[in-house]
Each structure stands twice: as structure tokens, then as C-alpha cells.
Amino acid sequence: MQIPIKISNDGSEEWMMLELQGDLESRTQTKMSNKFIGDLHFTKQGVPVLIIGHHILHGKVMDMDKPFVIMNKIQTDTCMEVPESDTDEELDVLYNIKAVVKKKLIFKNRPKPIIASSVNNV
Q1: Beta strands of the chain (E only): which ranges?
Q2: Are 82 and 91 in contact (CB under 8 A)?
Q3: What residues pair up with 68 in beta bridges, in sequence order?
Q4: Pfam families annotated for this entry (predicted)?
Q5: CA Rg, the chain, in Å?
Q6: pLDDT (tens digit, 9 = 90+) per residue, 30-63?
Q7: For residues 107 and 57, is the Cβ–Cβ distance under 8 A?
């Protein structure tokens, strides 16, 4: 069976994967999906810096061994015909490529606490 795949009209975006060593846990023990976890910045030298709460992590950008794509499944209104040589079925599903992942940000060192310096005026 053939699976129709379509590249987004606006062009597929390039995303990066975020790789952390260890676990991220919420203080309230709630699920972390679709939650804000921190700020990602890049230094002038291109080094990624991730700030989560009162902790800072320094990472590096790496090329992935094998790039992969992010796709979403779309139910189509009209059925698409598959060539007769493959099957007589009609398809009503289309996969749309949202992004291509070619690079990853690796944060493998332990986070360092951010300590605000205070000035004592005595």
C-alpha cells in the first residue's frame, strides 16, 4: 500500500531535538507535556544555554546521525485513489511533513545553580 506524503506548502521547517541527561520533575508532580520548562538562549559563539528555574545548563549543537521528520496525520475529505497495481482500496489519510530534525542540542553536564549576587551597603 502506498502512503501519500505531502510537504507543507510553506516549506518544511527545521527543528532541533533537545537532549537532557536525567529527569525533569515538576514541583507539583503534574504532567510536563505542553508546559513551559525554561528559556533557551545562544551565546555569541553559538553555545546553547538553557535556564530552568534557578538552574543553568550549557550545551552544544550536534548533527544527528540520521535526520528524521515530524509528520501529522490528516483525514482527507476526498478519497485518494491508489494505482491499480498496488491495491483496489481508496485512501482517506494523508501525512503532512511539518519539520525536519537534523540537529540536536545536547545538555550532558549537571545543572549549575544561579546565585544572585547581592551588594551589602553597610
Answers
A1: 5-7, 13-20, 39-42, 48-52, 55-58, 60-81, 90-107, 112-113
A2: yes
A3: 101
A4: Ctf8
A5: 22
A6: 888 888 889 999 999 999 999 998 999 999 999 9
A7: yes
Biggest distance spanned by C-alpha atoms of the chain: 87
Report residue 83 as a C-alpha cell.
494505482
pLDDT digits (tens, 9 = 90+) for 61-97: 999 999 988 888 888 765 555 455 455 455 688 888 8
| Residues contacting residue 111 through CB under 8 Å, at least 6 positions apart | 52, 55, 56, 57
Pairwise CA distance, residues 23 & 72, whole Å = 27
Residue 19 contacts residue 109 (beta carbons within 8 Å) = no
